[in-house]
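Chapter review. Work through the record for DUF885 domain-containing protein before attempting the end-of-chapter questions.
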Amino acid sequence: MASPARAIRDLADAYSDDLADLNPIIGTMTGLRPGDDRLPDFSPDGQQARDDLDRRTLAAVGGTSAPEDDDERRCARLLRERLSSNLAVSEAGEHLRDVSNIFGPVHVTRLVFTMMPTATDDDWAVIARRMANVPAALAGYTESLRTGAERGLTAAPRQVRTLAGQLADWSAVADGRGWFAGLAAKATVPDSLRGDLDRAADQAGAAVRELGGWLSEDYLPRTEGTPDGVGEERYRVAARQWTGSNLDPREAYDWGWAEFHRLREEITEEASRVLPGASIGEAMAHLNEHGERAEGVPAILARLQGLMDEAIRDLDGTHFDLAGRIRRVEAHEAPPGSAAAPYYVRPDRSFTRPGRTYLPTLGRTSFPVWSLISTWYHEGVPGHHLQMAQWAHLADRLSAFQAGIGQVSACTEGWALYAERLMDELGYLRDPGARLGYLEAQLMRAIRVIIDIGMHLGLPIPGDSPVGAGQHWTPDLGRALFAAHSSEPDSYIDSEITRYLSRPGQAISYKLGERAWLDGREAARKAKGEAFDAKSWHMAALSAGSLGLDDLAAELATL
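Structure tokens for DUF885 domain-containing protein:
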């Protein structure tokens, strides 16, 4: 019988179990369904089943008494906000035009295979069965896009061309046999299993090629005339999904410009410290040519691993109290055909799979280190890994929903930006260029706020803008502003612009989330005065579970 003190969290756990049945990738990611060989139904019927679950659970939350326990109260608010947001996104038909270069249905279908254990023959048998289900999963996704096209709901051509190109990259792996065949080739298994594994890999690879061809030949012509930007109504719905707030996009846009000008002044000063008299671009070029470099993928992964290991050694006991199983995190190369941005994958709840950071190498073999240092504090420690691993560690006390399934991007990306700032405050960015890299990343996040909102709403560009003054935002102008303030190659910038256009509202979650984390810390510090203890606050904040922006700063202020 459920405990009255945990009624909401028990409901959230039941929801998480049911959702893991409907979306087995979530089951693998969280560890709720180890050994599951299924994949989600990405068809309209599959979405309808998830919508029905959300509606039933929302009704059940409304039937519970007002919670007194803090974890119960936070969980209730998170459930209401997340499920309402899910339904709003579905009602807008976004699943019928979901074409993206990052974390879309196709990407998570491949991603889940990188999360699965491979130590035993039984593990590979599960992988073989799941690979055999890839064609049905991609067919369901195709059905959703086809249904959307019939209703006049299509993605923009830019996103379609990019995804088709990524699928071509996947298919080129392993001498043209495809990414799934390359994964299967790593297995040392008995002949009885080898046949099943290779057949499944071939079927999955054929499905990837078929989807890529359909996107290019059938779907792309139907998208002609679809604008890149989604407009204000769709943007507000999408932004709530990423931030947990019904925010005012114009207030955020104006604040983004204020941050841009503040950071541009600061980074100009930092550039002169790297190379006296140099501009920002000249200082970055100097670091790329003369700064520390890692030659080869193994070397850069070892360097990034060392950064995270050092941070854990130094911060544990001083600024955080880390459980033993949180102290393990790994650096990996991202598979071919990934988007350009680094990313993190959380551990499962049993920590049989550790937290992992991924670096997309994009064909490069030589890596300037200066621009990656603060990024790995963001992706690894004390950023995403400390937050999400702590949630996994406390999943039984919180709920599986608070510990990840109900994740709000502004909460997680905001913490990761806060973590970069913390490492700057603690003096870890002393190496030549390391602080310039941090400020470049901060400036990029401010630019994200400006151009994400600006491109989707077609807002006017102010007269003091270094790019496009007096015009209205377009993807080309957004790219120009990004390129003018970035040391990244063209392929990275193009990938980022496509990402913002295909995931409206996600790009703003970083800086808006950081703002809430900083406001919450400052309010807690003022409330407690000399009694404020940063380590205690950090651990309480990381133990509260996922929170949306409507609640985040206020909750942090009370800790």
